[in-house]
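Hey, sorry to bother you again with one of my protein questions. A protein chain has come my way and I'm curious about its shape. It would help a lot if you went through both lines with me. I owe you a coffee for this, so here goes:
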Amino acid sequence: MPFLRSAFARGIATLTLDSPHNRNALSTRLVTELREALAAAGRDDRVRAVLLTHTGTTFCAGADLSEPPSASGAAALVALLRSIVELPKPVVARVTGHVRAGGLGLLGACDISAAGRGASFAFTEARLGLAPAVISMPLLPRLDRRAAARYYLTGERFDAAEAARIGLVTMADPEGDADEALAPVLDGLRRGSPQGLAESKRLVTADVLRAFDRDGEPLAALSARLFASEEAREGMTAFLERREPVWARETAPDAGAAGASR
């Protein structure tokens, strides 16, 4: 079964992340299917915009930690995010579930996004011995820098209203329906001409594409190096085993008390 479902209606190509066994994590297969579907939408003259959504209670859990880390995986994520930014058609995200780590990069690459009931967000990389390296290219040109520093470093979870305040999503109604919020947006996109939409998008994505040109290779290399590190192996293993990594145990209250007593 595919990890991505595609549909088309009234000028909108809907791409639905549908990999429930790993909470729509960015596996090699899902990344490949999503890139192929985006390319197909770009070639289809009927398509005015792409709607990216999900099944289940998770939009995207980030990297698939069950797959061996590799430089090719980091490069593939760079290529996926860039393909969203470069697509000559607007890409709109609809979020009604959890978004973690690399999944936030998908939101950053999209042109417009709406978060509704059930949405929550967290940059969890630092807690795993990693960093939000590749996803910073579409995110940092758009995020409030002070908020980015806080959430990159702490890994705190935040809600849809906060995501809108810091620029992660375009609009949010934590208690409402994302489809209602997106209805006038999609209607507006249907009324756009192909040339008008493409050239307007090019104007608002210029800074993001410059970040990809400048930082794509070094950030992919950084991501691959971090994923292969001893600390990241401990962080990812602890996550999969549902336990605290060693560095969290070292700073726990009991550890501090034991150290003070010696």
Remarks:
- The first helix runs from residue 28 to 43.
- Residues 24 and 60 are 5 Å apart (CA to CA).
- The longest strand covers residues 4-9.
- The beta strands are 4-9, 12-17, 49-54, 58-60, 91-95, 98-100, 112-115, 120-122, 158-159, 171-172.
